[in-house]
Amino acid sequence: GAVVSQHPSWVICKSGTSVKIECRSLDFQATTMFWYRQFPKQSLMLMATSNEGSKATYEQGVEKDKFLINHASLTLSTLTVTSAHPEDSSFYICSARAGGTGGNTEAFFGQGTRLTVV
Amino acid sequence: AQSVTQLDSQVPVFEEAPVELRCNYSSSVSVYLFWYVQYPNQGLQLLLKYLSGSTLVESINGFEAEFNKSQTSFHLRKPSVHISDTAEYFCAVSEAGGSYIPTFGRGTSLIVHP
Questions:
Q1: Closest chain B residue to the Cα of A51, Cα to Cα
Q2: In sequence order, which residues have a C-beta less than 8 Å from that of residue B71 and are 6 or more positions away?
Q3: Could you report the per-residue pLDDT of A47-64, keeping only the tens digit for each?
């Protein structure tokens, strides 16, 4: 299957600082990327969907000014957690799919980023 | 909109025993169905999927799932589990032919005891 690489796999930051997480599709062009947040022992919560070259679509309740998403190319999307607070500590997972109407139905997942805000 | 219900939050079994992880979905349109596995501190890996055709789908490591439209179910089964199957399993559904945004169940923790 296709490979999606997420970096870093874990990060610790101080409260008030910003953290950037990268998601790259290594061997395919990802027209659509998804960002999820996962709390311990819970399912994945979709935060936003981004299409290359356009603004991300955020799910209800997700602060777009706090979680900045940029999908500048067909192989890279970034999630920046701005002014991080301890309650932002979580496991963040990206996924990517090749696009087009009726195109690839499978999304491939990155390995996740464990964010700890102290 | 679609929704997924995984009735069991945790399923403990002994090694070499059979297991079934239950998944029911709700949708007003045709769907695609998926099972993903997640090992600790890792992302999700696709285990198997149903898009169309045969209602019984299999994975390379012995898992299988059967799409039952009348019961709106997609239960995951394995006849004999291994210690290494211990992980979190997520059932997911998306609208067939749509924009593909999967909706995940809450997950089932499979714990295999020696």
A1: B99
A2: B24
A3: 999 888 888 999 999 999
The torsion region of residue B88 among left (phi > 0), alpha (psi -120 to 50) and beta comes to: beta
pLDDT tens readout for residues B1-55: 788 999 999 999 999 999 999 999 999 888 899 999 999 878 889 899 998 888 9
Give the mutation candidate from B39, B44, B94 for the A interface (greatest A CB count, under 10 A). Answer: B44
Contacts of A108 in chain B (CB under 8 A): 46
Q: pLDDT for A11-30, tens place per residue?
A: 999 999 999 999 999 988 88
- What token pair was written down for B85? 């199957």
| pLDDT reading at A40 higher than 60 | yes
Comparing CA positions, the residue from B52, B45, B98, B90 lying closest to residue A108 is: B45
- Is the pLDDT at A92 greater than 90? The verdict is yes
Chain B residues close to A105, C-beta within 8 Å = 32, 49, 51, 94, 100
Taking the CA of residue A27 and the nearest CA in chain B, the distance in Å comes to 17
Give A85→chain B minimum CA distance, Å.
Answer: 21
